[in-house]
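Step 1: inspect the first sequence and its tokens.
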Amino acid sequence: MPTIHIIDVTNRDGVQTARLGLAKLEKTMINLYLNEMGIFQSEAGFPVTRHEINYLNANLLLAGQGVLAPIRISGWMRAIKEDVAEAFRNVQNLEHVNLSISTSEQMILGKFMGKRDFGSVIKDMTDAVDAARAAGAKSIGVNAEDASRTETEKLIEFGLAAKEHGACRLRYCDTLGYDTPFSIYEKVVRIAEQIQLPIELHCHNDLGMAVACSIAGAKAAIDAGFDAYINTTVNGLGERAGNADLVSVLLACKYGAGMDKYVLDSRIKFSMAWKIAHYAAYAFKVPISINQVGVGSNAFAHSSGIHVDGALKDRKNYELYEFEELGRGEPEIIETGRMIILGEYSGIKGLRNIYGKLEVEFKDENEAREILELARYANVHKQKPLTDDELLFIARHPEEARLLMTVTP
């Protein structure tokens, strides 16, 4: 039965947000949390960008060990065969890719400046798909950048060419957040019926409709008989006004009117919502809005008399879903006395104190000092204190931690 899957792009589109970014250790933690949440695929980064190479290789090592599994770790690159060749040279265990090229007349004229026409766009794309297949890619998504401003017939031509050369999905990119739920449904259902491929929905929030358009596009793909893949970012971060928020999309798929007829990936664990949203807020240094869907501090807060009375009688009167389902409800313990923090200048006594509380034992002094050095470097790498999960990751996977924190200009 056609299913809605989630491909999260926090580590690709989210980190492109102006003024923001993540350290490679933080990107890795996002991947680990996405995996624990049951997300189908993480678009983990850019295999052609040099400072991403070690991080991507480290994450694929973790995937090979079963630590980052069953989530797929994928790479994004331009749909140019030279980029594909370089990507697979840099990251040799890469298996899943998305190849992107602009398709709208605006971008063909405004970006390519007469160097390409629509025919050469298709030629570049199909050459890149051929190159990715030859390099050993197991899944290839082809991205039509600015699809929402591209003529539908041209998108069908583009999608059929991608399919003929071995692509397994077409990514419909509402790059400027131009679509409405009505327009995206009409285009996607027709495209899916014509090209007979699953559709990936990549929606931006410039008009505040990224989640609505993602759900409408997914509905269209499934109504046409094919799987839908929704692109999300944690907390809706992304370029300009952001992308479709992960938690909002998941809740809309489960609780939106009429969505009970559509199947959401059964691996999804809603209970990870609170944890991943708050980690991303800490890592990006962007606080969660008080009214953010599901995870904001007011998402389950009631004040007015009528609402309080109704919620106390039966929570369903004023709550569409339960806070426990999202991993909320446990009290947070905040230390107000002595605190020992592991920083870039910490010593072995501090390390033993902190890891002792985490119930981590070291086999000998050499191992303890190795982890101390890595923890120091991680503080330099992140420029903020390490979380308990980050400390545990470093202790359990020191070689991978060393690799992903190694950036050589």
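Step 2: inspect the second sequence and its tokens, then contrast the two.
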Amino acid sequence: MSLLIDRIGELVTHDGPPLEDAALVVEDGRVAWTGPARGAPAADDRIDADGAAVVPGFVDSHAHLVFAGDRAAEFAARMGGSPYTGGGIMTTVAATRAAGDDVLRSNTRRLVEEARRQGTTTIEIKSGYGLSVADEVRSLRVAGEFTAETTFLGAHVVPRGADPDEYVALVTGPMLNAVREHAKWIDVFCDRGAFTGEQAHEILTAGVAAGLLPRIHANQLGPGPGVRIAVELNAASADHCTHLSDADVDALAGGDTVATLLPGAEFSTRSPYPDARRLLDAGVTVALATDCNPGSSYTSSMPFCIALAVREMRMTPAEALWAATAGGARALRRDDVGHLRVGARAHLVILDAPSYLHLAYRPGVPLIQRVLP
């Protein structure tokens, strides 16, 4: 079966400038043709976009969706002036360990469906709220029911009372061996209060040896070695990138590691935003993601993150949309999503707006009319 979407007011394919008065044909789940509506070929079925804009589906390359409970009280305390330290992670660990699989599955499904209603068609899901062999395995099993982009984050924080060296040995030994068949990626939180550069390097190296692909939480709470470790190990993505030195920026510009920015975290923690303009001007590939989690960024909305990136991080609307689609795909090393060139998966969003500009122009307004597939 083929599907024609015509009378598109503005079509963003990321293959040149947006097309006006355009059409798109889908065959077997892939983009088969794009061009002027007047030249569109016939198809078995048709959707009339009625002048609306069509953009690629959002690719959310950083999300923590397998958990139980919430941390609304922690958020309220931050809004009252308490600083964010990351220490509340253990609150979620306790709730997650105590929850049954059905609770974790139901909550993950709710968040995945919530993200989809806001235009997200590809999503990465991390573990990291289990921090024991059994709980990390079941977290990744649940994540794998919803996405192929599953990430082992046993190195989220060191559990209370655990010896850091012994915990690193657990993560790189028995835990890694138990989860490797359920994960595609390995991640580590390399920052103060979490894991040192030496520990992060050891954990990621062990993951690569086990067949997993590396990514890293880096430079969120302060300067550190995380970004340079990411580039050294050819990690797909260094995420947060809030506190960067000139050497960090140069390393990212000279490597293949994507800088994934998570403005929802800065919004929710009242922290300084990353300097996206500095990265873009240096030639760094930038992605946007939600960092959806119950503590520091409890949003599943990529449109909200686009609006924040434009308003607070000096990205243009076009740069922000690219980062939330093609950039996210690069952060997952995918070339089949994040764009609508011929041959791409037909993951797309019909907006309730005439232009993609409205994603930043009308923040907080539900502009997602339809999501395909």
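Step 3: confirm your contrast with the notes below.
The chain has a mean pLDDT of 97. The chain has 13 helices and 17 strands.
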